[in-house]
């Protein structure tokens, strides 16, 4: 008999992957050019040329031992370069000892939660949220506490304060946000830190701020992502190069923990230990080197901004209600039908693949990932027009 918990989770598992598979079936039947798949946050642009040049150099003339084991935390010189990079951006005096190389941000989040959680401790998550956060929390015996955001998808700090209990161990933050693309302002984060400190003192506990940051560099319109390591005393960052360098399949990222955390040295040891015992062992050796030489490289953000503007402007003109995203590469419009599952099926008739918002904690919305080719977006516009008409807009 399989794990009852896993079987239960399978029934509620990722709607993103389910719609991706639905899209694959439609493409096989009708041809890829005739299906408009906005299901998966899989970057369309190639990695930056600087990154590809580093990869070619390493592959053509690899340093001795490139593919061997190293410290479970990753190469010391790579971690030192990342610490220096973060310090320039407001990392508050990090060293290599504060950084653990991880298998992407997803691997990093599991490493963090395994190191922090005792059975039954609570992790606060703002809705809407990345669909795997609840599963990650449950992986390590924790309980997810979901609280709402306001009409602009900004955290409701009054709800946050009410939701914190003596069992609260951590808060997961994701800005720019998946699925909304909203960027949280520095003033809001500063107020959030005051609440965490206040409640920590009230309950004689430490409440950690876990910041999931795969979209940190993908922001538009002059916005900036505030450095959480400078704002929160007990901050731990999970970062991925999947989006900034278009390397999602390489599973390379890092965890960086503030050196202002009490017993930070013990926490760093715990992160290294959990990285090993969860079976990651170490992050991919080749791409640790690639990442270290690509810290200033970026995918051309104008590519995503053009796609955002084309899709957002068209949908808004059709009457869809949507907060304009300031970062990442998702739109999160409100469904024009009360039943988003019904709207999803209606969209499929027009060969549009979208993801209902239920898995993100907001069932009245749906997500569109606009990191697809510009031609896919351009060709989809008539289909969205027809969909809007059928939905009564």
Radius of gyration: 21 Å
> How far is the N terminus from the C terminus?
49 Å
Query: Can you tell me the overall shape?
Result: globular
Residues in helix, %:
40-55%
* CATH fold-level assignment of the largest domain: Aspartate Aminotransferase, domain 2
Instruction: Indicate the mean pLDDT.
Output: 94
Poorly predicted runs are none
Instruction: Tally the helices.
Output: 14
Note the main sheet.
7 strands, mixed
Largest sheet: spatial strand order: 2-8-7-6-5-3-4
Strand proportion? 5-15%
Structural class by secondary-structure content: alpha/beta
**What is the N-to-C succession of helices and strands?**
HHEHHEHEHEHEHEHEEHHHEHEEEH
Q: Name the CATH class of the largest domain.
A: Alpha Beta
What is the fourth-level CATH superfamily of the largest domain?
Type I PLP-dependent aspartate aminotransferase-like (Major domain)
Quickly count the domains: 2
User: Architecture of the largest domain, according to CATH?
Assistant: 3-Layer(aba) Sandwich
Number of strands: 12
Structural description of this entry:
The chain is of the alpha/beta class and about 400 residues long. The protein folds into two domains: about 5-50 and about 300-390, Aspartate Aminotransferase, domain 1 (Alpha-Beta Complex); about 60-290, Type I PLP-dependent aspartate aminotransferase-like (Major domain) (Aspartate Aminotransferase, domain 2), CATH 3.40.640. The protein is about 40% helix and about 15% strand. It contains 14 helices and twelve strands. It has helices at about 5-10, 15-30, 50-60, 75-90, 105-115, 135-140, 155-165, 185-205, 230, 265-275, 285-290, 300-320, 340-350, 375-390; strands spanning about 35, 100, 120-125, 145-150, 170-175, 210, 235-240, 255, 330, 350-355, 355, 365-370. A seven-stranded mixed β-sheet has the order 2-8-7-6-5-3-4, sandwiched between helices. Helix 3 (about 50-60) crosses helix 11 (about 285-290). It is globular. The protein starts with a helix and ends with a helix. The mean pLDDT is about 95.
């Amino acid at each position: 008999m399989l794990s009852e918990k896993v079987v239960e989770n399978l029934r509620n598992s990722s709607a993103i992957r389910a719609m991706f598979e639905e899209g694959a079936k439609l493409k096989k039947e009708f041809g890829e050019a005739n299906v408009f798949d906005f299901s998966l946050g899989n970057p369309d642009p190639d990695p930056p040329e600087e990154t590809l040049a580093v990869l070619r150099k390493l592959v053509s003339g690899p340093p001795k031992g490139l593919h061997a084991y190293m410290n479970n935390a990753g190469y010391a010189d790579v971690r030192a370069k990342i610490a220096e990079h973060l310090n320039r951006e407001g990392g508050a005096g990090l060293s290599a000892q504060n950084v653990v190389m991880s298998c992407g941000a997803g691997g990093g989040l599991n490493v963090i939660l395994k190191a922090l959680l005792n059975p039954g401790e609570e992790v606060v998550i703002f809705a809407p949220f990345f669909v795997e956060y609840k599963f990650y929390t449950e992986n390590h015996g924790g309980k997810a506490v979901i609280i709402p955001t306001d009409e602009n998808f900004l955290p409701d700090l009054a709800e946050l304060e009410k939701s914190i209990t003596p069992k609260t161990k951590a808060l997961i933050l994701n800005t720019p946000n998946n699925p909304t693309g909203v960027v949280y302002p520095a003033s809001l984060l500063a107020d959030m830190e005051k609440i965490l400190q206040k409640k920590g003192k009230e309950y004689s506990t430490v409440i950690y701020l876990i910041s999931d940051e795969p979209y940190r560099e993908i922001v538009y319109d002059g916005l900036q992502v505030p450095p959480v390591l400078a704002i929160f005393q007990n901050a731990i960052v999970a970062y991925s190069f999947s989006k900034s360098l278009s390397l999602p399949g390489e599973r390379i990222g890092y965890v960086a923990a503030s050196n202002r955390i009490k017993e930070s040295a013990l926490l760093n040891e715990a992160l290294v230990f959990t990285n090993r015992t969860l079976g990651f062992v170490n992050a991919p050796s080749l791409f640790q080197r690639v990442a270290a030489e690509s810290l200033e490289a970026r995918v051309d953000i104008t590519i995503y901004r053009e796609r955002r503007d084309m899709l957002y402007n068209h949908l808004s003109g059709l009457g869809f209600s949507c907060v304009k995203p300031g970062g990442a590469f998702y739109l999160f419009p409100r469904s024009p039908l009360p039943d988003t599952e019904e709207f999803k099926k209606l969209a499929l008739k027009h060969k549009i693949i979208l993801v209902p918002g239920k898995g993100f904690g907001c069932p009245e919305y749906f997500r569109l990932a606009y990191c697809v080719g510009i031609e896919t977006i351009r060709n989809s516009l008539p289909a969205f027009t027809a969909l809007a008409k059928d939905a009564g807009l």
